[in-house]
């Protein structure tokens, strides 16, 4: 999801990436936790190109997953 117009000036975050983070039972029903990660424009473009698994792997390798840093460098 593109959010470029809603972030602080000089922020490197240009979008949000939604990921299924956890599954569990709550009061006997299936439930889940949706992770919302801030991503850079390059990462957003890669996700739009079908490379979401590669972006997530690169974020994990760089140690920035599952966090949002509004001023971090791209991992792609």
Give your account of this protein's structure.
This protein has a two-stranded antiparallel sheet. Helix 1 packs antiparallel against helix 2. The protein has 76 residues and is an alpha+beta fold. The radius of gyration is 14 Å and the shape is globular.
Helix-strand blueprint:
Blueprint: E1 13-26, E2 29-40, H1 41-48, H2 52-62
Antiparallel strand pairs: 1-2
Helix pairs in contact: 1-2
Rounded to an integer in angstroms, the radius of gyration calculated over CA atoms is 14 Å
Shape: globular
Order of helices and strands: EEHH
Strand order, sheet with most strands? 1-2
> Based on DSSP secondary structure assignment, what is the total number of beta strands?
2
Label the structural class.
alpha+beta
Structure keywords:
single chain; 76 residues; globular; 34% strand; alpha+beta; 2 helices; two-stranded antiparallel sheet
Brief overview:
This protein is α+β, with helices and mostly antiparallel strands and 76 residues long. The protein is built from two helices and two strands; from the N terminus they run ββαα.
């Amino acid at each position: 999801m593109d959010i470029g117009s809603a972030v602080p000036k000089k922020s490197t975050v240009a979008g949000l990436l939604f990921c299924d983070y956890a599954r569990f039972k709550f009061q006997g029903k299936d439930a889940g936790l949706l992770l919302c990660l801030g991503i850079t424009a390059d990462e957003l473009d890669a996700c739009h190109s079908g490379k979401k698994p590669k972006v997530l792997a690169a974020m994990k390798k760089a140690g920035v997953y599952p966090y949002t840093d509004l001023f971090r460098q791209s991992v792609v």
